[in-house]
Amino acid sequence: MSDKDDDKLLTEAKARFKRCEDFEADFRTLFVADLKFVNADSDNGYQWPEGLRKNRDQDKRPSLTINKTRQHALMVINEAKENRPSVKVSAVGGDASYESAQVYEGVIRHIEYQSNAADAYDTALDFQVKTGIGYWRVVTEYAGDDSFDQEIYIRRIRNPLSVYLDPDIKEMDGSDAKFGFVFDDMKVEDFNRKYPAYKDKVARTTMGERDDWSNEDTVRVAEYYYITYEKDTLIAMPGPDGVGGVQISMITQSKLTEADPELSRLVMADKEIQRRPIQKQKVDWCLIAGDQIIDRSEWPGATIPIVRVVGEETLIEGKLDRKGHVRNLKDPQRMYNYWSSGAVEYVALQTKTPWVTGVKAIEGYESIWETANTENHSHLPYNDMDDAGNPVAPPMRTDPPVMSAAYIQGMQVAAEEMKMVSGQNDPLMGAPSNEISGVAIGKRVKQSDRATMQYRDNQAKAVRYTGKILVDIIPKIYDTPRTLRILAEDGSDDTVRIDPNQQQPMVEQPKTDGTDGVDRAFNPAMGKYEVVAESGPSYASKREEAFEAMCQLAMSDPNFMPNAGDLFFAAADFPLSDELAERWKNIIPANVRGEGPPPELEAAQQQIQQLQAQLAAAMQAAADNDKKASDKDKANEINAYKAVTDRLDSFMDKLGPIQAAIMAQQSVQAALTDPSPIDAQPAPPDAQPMQQPLQ
Question: pLDDT tens digits for 289-313?
C-alpha cells in the first residue's frame, strides 16, 4: 500500500478508536472501581471511600474490611469452571459424517490443549463475573523456526481494558464486529529487536492511548483488525450428477476464473445460467505504532478473531451500562463494613472491666491490684477486717463491656441483603439451612444457580463463537499434509493424518503397523459442519458421579458386580482401576457384555447339536442291526437318512433357533419310529403345524 493509503487507513482507525473510547468511557471508570472493590482487603481499603477512610484513620477509628463480595463472586466463577462449556461439532452436509465431525472435535481439543485455552477461558470468566466483560483471542503462529507450517492458538487477554470492539455490534459474542483494537505495551528492547527498521522512529504512544500502567520503558502498539468487502458474482453452476442428471453447485466468479479463465468467460456470457452479485467479506490486520503502520497481513477467517464474554450489558438512553456480579453487592458490603467497624469501635470505647472496692480493703496491696487487669496473679489478697474488727466486703467486678444489639442486627441485615441482591442463598454459600435431604439442598442450590445463569450462558456463546472461528480457519491453516495428535472427551489421545488432497472428509483403513485400530486420514476442507457449545459437568465430574451412583447400586444389588463390574472399575479413578476393569471384563459372560449370542440362542444351538448326535447314533444303530439286508437296501436306508439330515440342515439356515430345535426333534422322532422309508421326511414349516416346543 502507498503512503497515501496508509494515511487514509490511520485516519479511519483513529476515528473508530475515538468512537469506542467515547462509547465505553463511563463503563471503564466503573470497571476499575468494581475490580478494586472485589479485591479489597484491610491493607488497600478499596471498599471505603478514600476521604472517609483517611478521616477515620486520623481519628484513630477502625475502618474494617470484611470482604464477603469476593466469596460471592468466587462461588459463581468456580461453579462455572466445574461446568465449563465445550465445543461440539455436528455434520450438516457435503459428505460430512458423524465420524468426521468427531475428528473435527478432536482437532479443536488439540488446539485448546496446546494453547492452554483453559487459562484464557478462566481469565475471561473471572473478569466477566467481577467487572462485566472479559476477552480471549484466536491467533496463528509458525510451528517453529524451521517450518512454514502454521498452528492455531487460543490466547488469553490479561487486561480487558486493552481491547476496544466495534460499538455497533448486535450479537452477544461480538461475531458481527466490523473492527477491533488490541493494545499492548512492548518493552523497548523487544520492539527494537522485532522491528529494527523503526527503532527510535515511532512515538511511545499510539493514537494518544496511555494509562497509569504505561511507562517510558515501553512502546504502546495497537493491533487493528478491520473488515473489507470485495465485489464478486455467485454462479449456480450446472454440471453432471454422475447418474445422467444435472447437479447445481455454487461457485464464485473469482474462483472459477482462477481455475479456468476460458470456462469462466463462457459461463458469464451464458444468460441462462443463474447468478447474482455478492460482497465477499475478508479480514485485514495491521500493527500501528505511534502514527505509522509497521506490519500488516490478511487474517484467514471471515470474522474478527476477538471473542468477548459479557456479564450483563444494556443500553440506557444511548449509553453503555455493563456490569458483573459485584456492582449490586457494593452497598450491602459497605453497610456490613460500617456496622462491623462501628461495633468494634463501640466496644473498644468501653473501659476494661474494673474492680470496685473500698480503699481500706486493698490497703497495703495496691501494687497487686493495679495490675489485676493486665497480669495473671495466682491470688489477689485484700483486708477482710477493718481496724475495729468488722468484716470488709471483698472487691467485686462491674459488668463487662457489652456489644450493642443494634450493631449486631445491622450486620445481619447487611449480610441478608447481600444474599438478596446476589440470589445466592445459605446452602450455596455452605451454611446450614432448614433443608435436610440432599435432594432438597440440591434444589435450593439450583435456585441460586438460576440467579447467576447468565454468566454461564454467555460464556457458552463465546465458546461457540470460538468453535466457529476454528472451523472457519482450520482448513486454511492446515493446508499441508501433517499428523496431529487429537484428544477425545475423556482425555485419551489418538493420531489423525491431515490430508487436504483426498476427495472425502475422512478415510479409515486398518493400521499398517500390525496394531489394533485404524489409521484415519482427514480433510477438513471437505464437508459442512455446525458448531454448538455444550454446557455441563466436565468429563471428570461426570465420571465421579457415575462411580458414586454405581457404588450405591453395588451395595444394594448383589447382581450388579457380576454383571457390570467392568463398568464399575472403568468409572473409578484410582491407580490400576483400568487393569481391574479389563480383568473383570473377562469374568463377565460375553452375552451379558453384548458381545455374544443371547442365552436363548445358545440353549437352542446346544439342543440342535444334541438332537443331531442322537440322529447320527440312530443311523449307526440301524446300519449295525441290519447286516443281513442287501447292499441296495442298505444304500436306500443311508440315502433316506442322508436326505433327512440334508433337509434338516437346509431348514436350519432358514429358521430361528427355537424353530430349528423343534424341527430337529421332529426329524429324530420320525427317524426313530420308522427309519426305513425315504418319504418319511419332515414337511416344511409352512406345510406342517409346529409341535409343542422343547421343554
Answer: 988 899 999 999 999 999 999 999 9
Q: Which parts of 349-404 fold into alpha helices (H)? A: 366-370
pTM beyond 0.85: the answer is: no
Nearest-angstrom CA–CA distance, 221 and 291: 10
pLDDT digits (tens, 9 = 90+) for 232-284: 999 988 888 777 777 888 888 888 898 889 988 888 888 888 999 998 899 99
3-state secondary structure of 12: helix
Instruction: Kindly state the helix (H) or strand (E) to which residue 310 belongs, with its residue range.
Output: strand 306-310
Plot region of 443 (φ>0 → left; ψ -120 to 50 → alpha; else → beta) = alpha
Phi/psi for 92 (5° steps) reads -125, 0
In the chain, the amino acid numbered 261 is P
Cα–Cα distance for residue pair 301/284, rounded to 1 Å = 10
Residue with cell 442287501: 630
**SS3 (DSSP) at 239:** strand
Complete DSSP assignment for 631-643: HHHHHHHHHHHHH
3-state SS of 46-110 is CCCCHHHHHHHHHCCCCCCCCCCHHHHHHHHHHHHHHCCCEEEEEEEECCCCHHHHHHHHHHHHH
Question: How does 675-695 read in b/e, with b if 16+ C-beta sit within 10 Å?
Answer: beeeeebbeebeeeeeeeeee
Are 100 and 505 spatial neighbours (Cβ–Cβ below 8 Å)? yes
CB 140 within 8 A of CB 153: yes
Q: Can you tell me whether residue 240 is helix, strand or coil? A: strand
CA dist 21 → 12, 163, 167, 209, 223 (Å)? 14, 10, 10, 10, 16
User: Which whole-number Å values give the CA distances from 14 to 10, 188, 317, in the listed order?
Assistant: 6, 23, 25
Residues contacting residue 576 through CB under 8 Å, at least 6 positions apart: none
Per-residue pLDDT band at 12 (split at 50, 70, 90)? very high
Q: Which grid cell sits at 27?
A: 463503563
SS3 248: strand
| Exposure on the CB side of residue 603, measured as CA atoms within 13 A | 9
Cβ–Cβ < 8 Å for 292, 198: yes
- Give dist(CA 601, CA 8) in Å, integer: 81
Map grid coordinates 433316506 to a residue. 640
